[in-house]
Amino acid sequence: MDIYSIVIIVGFAVSLLLGFLLGFGRTLKFVTGGIVGFVCSIIFCVMFGGIIANIDFVAELIDKGNAYFGSIAEILAKLNVATWIYYVVLFLVVQIVRIIIVKLIGRIFTPKDKDSKLYGVRNAVNRVLGMLLLGAAFVLTVYLVMAVMALLTDVESVGTVLKEMEESGNSFFYLMYSNNPIDLSVLFKSNG
After folding, report:
1. What is the rounded CA–CA span in Å between residue 98 and residue 95?
2. Residue range 22-71, pLDDT digits in tens
3. Which has the closest alpha carbon to 46: 90, 3, 93?
4. What angle do CA 184, 188, 192 make, to 5 degrees?
5. Dist. CA 89–CA 85, nearest whole Å
6. φ, ψ for residue 73 (rounded to 5)?
7. Are the beta carbons of 41 and 94 closer than 8 angstroms?
8. What confidence tens digit (pLDDT) does each residue in 89-107 have?
9. Alpha helix ranges (H) inside the chain
10. Cα–Cα distances in Å, from 53 out to 34, 59, 81?
11. Contacts of 159 (CB under 8 A, 6+ apart)
C-alpha cells in the first residue's frame, strides 16, 4: 500500500475519533465556521440567488434600484449596481442565518445536564453524529483535493504519481481517485 493511501486511512480514522470526542455541536461549529462557512454562504448565494431574485417582489426592487442608479450615471446602469447590492445583502443575510442555525443546533446537541436521565442517550447520539459529520467532511475534502489533482494531470509529476498508483493495483488512493464523484473539469476546462 502506498503512502498516500495510508495517509487517507489514518486521516479518516483520526477525523472519526475527533468527531466522536468533540460531539456534533462542536464539530458543526468547526466544519461550518471560518473560511468554510464563508465559502458555504457564497455557494448558497450562487446556487439560489437567481431563484430568489426571480421572486416578483425582489425582482421589482432590483429593477427599481438599477433604474435609480442608472439615472445617476450611465456606468452605474451598465454595472447593475442594485444587483450587486442584492447579492451582498443576500450574502450577509445567509451569513447571519447560518451563524444562528449553527449556534442553535450546537446548543441542542451539546448535553449540559449530566444528572438528567437522558444524558447518556443524548451524549451518545451527539458523539456519533459528530463522528459521522467530521468523517464525512474529511472524505469530502479528500475528494475535492483529488478533483483538483484531476485538473492537473497535465503536470508531469502528478501524472507520474497517478500512473504509478494505477499500475500498483493495490492503491486505496487510486481507487478513490478513479471513482471520484466530484468532477471540476466541467467548470475549469475549455471545450475547444
Report:
1. 5
2. 888 888 888 887 887 888 788 788 778 888 888 899 889 989 998 898 89
3. 90
4. 120
5. 6
6. -155, 145
7. yes
8. 999 999 999 889 888 887 7
9. 3-32, 34-53, 56-72, 74-79, 81-109, 119-151, 156-168, 172-178, 185-188
10. 27, 5, 14
11. 153
Rounded Cα–Cα distance for residues 174 and 166 (Å): 6
The type of residue at 131 is M
Give Cα separations from 181 to 166, 175, 178 (angstroms).
18, 12, 9
Query: Would you mind telling me the total number of residues written for the chain in this entry?
Result: 192
**Torsion 98-99-103-104 (CA) sign:** negative
Closest CA to 31 of 96, 85, 102, 100: 102
Buried b (16+ CB within 10 A) or exposed e, 79-96: eebbbeebbeebbeebbe
Nine-digit cell at 167?
Answer: 499500475
